[in-house]
Amino acid sequence: MSARNAIVVGGTGEMGQAVFGRLRAEGLRVVCASNDVPRVTSEALPVDVTDEASVAGMSDQVERTLGPSTCW
Q: CA-to-CA distance for 72 and 70, rounded, in angstroms?
């Protein structure tokens, strides 16, 4: 996989956490994005995928922190 940064949308669920862990194991910098993130950290951001502004804001924050993400 050539991408080095990834965003796992819905990453707080069981499957999302499995994907998150696998991508990290592969050496990617991963951010979990979900509507039920318990607290904002460098690895977890809140997002409402039904709100375009929320998705754009989350994406901008990830890009400022990690650089462009090419794996969603």
A: 7
**Long-range CB pairs of 59-64, under 8 A, 24+ apart, other chains included:** 59/7, 62/5, 62/7, 62/31, 62/33
Residue 10: C-alpha distances to residues 2, 45, 61 (Å): 22, 10, 17
pLDDT per residue, tens digit, the chain (72 aa), is 455 888 898 888 889 889 999 999 999 888 899 998 877 787 888 999 999 999 999 889 888 888 877 665
- Asked whether the whole model's pTM tops 0.85, one would answer no
